[in-house]
Amino acid sequence: MTTATKDQLDVERIRADFPILATILHAKAGTAGVPLAYLDNAATTQRPRQVVQSMVDVYEKHYANVHRGIHWLSDQSTDLFEEARGKVAAFIGSASTEQVIFTHGATESINLVARSWGDANLKSGDEILLTEMEHHANIVPWQQAAARTGAVVRFLPITDDGRLTLDKFDEYLTPRTKLVAVAAVSNVLGTINPVQEIIARAHAAGALVMVDAAQSVPHTKTDVTALDADFLAFSGHKMLGPTGVGILYGKRELLEAMPPFMGGGSMIRRVTTSGFEPAELPARFEAGTPPIVPAIGLGAAIGYLNTIGIDAIHEHELRLTRVAHEVLTAVGGVRFLGPDPEHKSGIVSFTLEKVHAHDIAQLLDRQGIAVRAGHHCAMPLHKRLGITASSRASFYFYNTTEEVERLGRALEEIKRIFRRK
Ligand code: PLP
Questions:
Q1: CA 98 to CA 405: how far, in whole Å?
Q2: Which residues participate in catalysis according to the annotation?
Q3: Are strands 152-156 and 127-131 parallel, antiparallel or unpaired?
Q4: Which of 109, 135, 186, 210 to mutate to test the pocket of ligand 1 (most atoms within 8 A of CB)?
Q5: Within 10 Å of residue 10's Cβ, how many Cβ atoms?
Q6: Which helix (H) or strand (E) holds 249?
Q7: 137 ligand 1 Cβ < 6 A
């Protein structure tokens, strides 16, 4: 028996909005096949019909370039695009829509800050403080910025159970620290980091904070104003939206002082043969034709998430995470990466004694269970944990306890197979 006996969300009704979740895999002549259990949501989520339809509607009825044409269709498209920006701003508690920049994903958002703010503000000897649990998207852009400017990248250590060593934070936060870049939720450990406290302590030491919220905005309430975040980045495709759209939120005074990241159309007020004058926010950072339809799709995704309720989503995922810990513990030989369920999001990464992560993922796939295997774009973290790869099951509100229990049964079977070898 597991602790979660009943899903409080009406998951069956929700799943009806996601046709892909009804997929039957590996059906061959004479066999029924197995139902898909999609447990790879930290990589990317699925989209409900409503989000797909919102984009079809734009293409069929409202599509033109934005902020350009002086014609009816362009006005329609521009209104929908800007409406989507408003939905994003409200969803993350931004005081204004101008502070919400459409990018092509969290990776681009972080690169934008590393290039634009980094090159203008970092100098030799300055320090950028990351943590040992960062995704490569929140490591490499800073290493590149350090290489350009002479700044130094440092890493706040983690504990063996995958939490930040905040007792060491003040030691790592020196007068040379110009920026702290930290994931709100680790994409491997699932650890929910105390971002509010990190920001307050960094600010007290005179450093800015970039929050990598790729794994938190889709799952927990985010209020950039209450957090006092300087920059915050996330991707649409991890929260029911399409690929190709992401967000950079930034404090107005910081964004206004930053040089444009890319040059081109839309990001200028005036261009002459001798130079250019950048546009106001947010256009200043949106060079070229933006991801118009993906942005509108992201707006629809936020509308869908709002009908479910972000707190209910978080609660449901916590229940699934508790179940996952129970059933995986019962398998035996499982090492969990990261803390207990009460301190993490719906991400459960693990290793299984004597079985490689890729074998696990392949054998689970035969049972219709989709998980991720490898280093999950977090090689320094895996090195810190003394492993090269792990398996990761990651949940969203459309997953069921039954799917998690199937994961447990399938792992028991895998363990039996490898014991026989
Ligand atoms: N940061 C974290 C914590 C992530 O998990 C990911 C994606 O897995 C990213 C950044 C990069 O997101 P994207 O590939 O959508 O740009």
A1: 45
A2: 377
A3: parallel
A4: 135
A5: 10
A6: strand 246-250
A7: yes
Tokens linked to 380: 């320094």
Q: Which domains, ranges and CATH numbers included, belong to the chain?
A: 11-35+309-420 (3.90.1150.10), 50-307 (3.40.640.10)
Q: Do the beta carbons of residue 344 and residue 321 sit within 8 Å?
A: yes
Distance in angstroms (rounded) separating the CA atoms of residues 204 and 136: 27
Q: Which residues pair with 389 in a beta bridge?
A: none
Question: Is residue 16 helix, strand or coil?
Answer: coil
214 lines ligand 1 (CB under 6 A): yes
Q: How far is the CA of 270 from the centre of ligand 1 (A)?
A: 35
> What pLDDT digit, counting tens, does each position of 160-212 carry?
999 999 999 999 999 999 999 999 999 999 999 999 999 999 999 999 999 99
pTM confidence score: 0.97
Residues 6+ apart with CB under 8 A from 88: 94, 100, 247, 298, 299, 302
Q: Cα dist. 277→86, 96, 102, 116, 285 in Å?
A: 26, 23, 20, 16, 13
Residues in the chain: 421
Query: The tokens 């054998």 sit on which residue?
Result: 363
Q: Is 235 in the pocket of ligand 1 (CB under 6 A)?
A: yes
Give per-residue pLDDT as tens, 206-245: 999 999 999 999 999 999 999 999 999 999 999 999 999 9
Q: Residue 208 and residue 126: Cα distance in Å, rounded?
A: 13
Cα pseudo-dihedral 225, 241, 58, 71, rounded to 10: 40
Helix runs in 41-176, H state only? 49-57, 72-92, 106-121, 140-149, 169-172
Six token digits for residue 303: 């509308």
**Residue for token pair 């709100």:** 184
Q: Is 219 in the pocket of ligand 1 (CB under 6 A)?
A: no
Q: Which of 203, 201, 195 is nearest to 223 (CA)?
A: 195
